[in-house]
Amino acid sequence: MGGISLHPVTFFMVQLVVMTGSLYEYYRIVENDKVRVFKITGLMTSVLMYLISSAVASGYASPAFFILLILPVMGTMIAEMYRNSSRPFDSIAHTVAGLIYVAIPWSLVPFMSFNTESVGTLLTHSIEGFSPGVLIGLIILLWANDIGAYLVGITLGRHRLFERISPKKSWEGFFGGLASAVGAAFIVDGWIGITTLQGWIIISILVSIGGTYGDLVESMLKRSAGVKDSGSIMPGHGGFLDRFDSILFALPLIFLFLTFFG
């Protein structure tokens, strides 16, 4: 949160680290299931995607530059022909799926951070129209949802939400998280602005639903590959993907809502 709030450069770098770290862990997980992905190509493509998104969102580049992303995808398909793999399209599919799962959601953030009237960064800068407000608000709502879901789940949780994938999650915990996120929307509205109170309440509902599904999808991914944590970079918390799985599903929902109704 400090890096996001400090300056546009630290805002950019924090997200770049989280995005590439999460994508790297995704590739490590699928490789545990004996799928040989193009890690370097996928990681470089994700960085290119975020750079283009930042340049387009800030008005320094044309959206036509997104066409460049087709080249590494085509290159991956061609390169697979020379690897003599028994499952060539598994490799191609997971390389591209990682970009869809991780890189595209993070690349939406720049479009929600420019041309918005909201809180400024802690350090002054000369970049016009930039604000970290949307991402700060989203993180606060996710925190509130996770805390509410945990506290209600461990005290009242009886009915399993999706036992086959995540045995500990309960319907009681889900609604506890939802109520907590809606409550936090009142705080976010008064501080962040950008949209109306009703808008932030809708966003909090989307965050709760998207965050829950994001967590479940990552659990499904790890179960299919037979791993417990996506990584070990944060002791006691797992890896990047373990910490930021919820935001990957929440970001597209918030982007769509702000684009069409914000």
Oligomer: single chain
Task: Please compute the radius of gyration using only Cα atoms.
Answer: 19 Å
The overall pLDDT average reads 87
Low-confidence stretches: none
**Share of helix, binned:** 55-70%
Q: Output the structural class.
A: mainly alpha
Number of helices: 10
Total beta-strand segments: 2
Tell me the count of domains.
Answer: 1
Strand arrangement across the biggest beta sheet:
1-2
Largest beta-sheet characterization:
2 strands, antiparallel
Distance linking N and C termini = 24 Å
Coarse shape: globular
What is the H/E string? HHHHHHHEEHHH
Strand content: under 5%
Please provide a written account of the structure:
- This protein is mainly alpha-helical and 262 residues long.
- It has one domain.
- 69% of the residues lie in helices and 3% in strands.
- It has a two-stranded antiparallel sheet with strand order 1-2.
- Helix 2 packs antiparallel against helix 3 (39-57), helix 3 (39-57) runs parallel beside helix 5 (88-107) and helix 4 runs antiparallel to helix 5 (88-107).
- The longest helix has 29 residues, at 197-225.
- The mean pLDDT is 87.
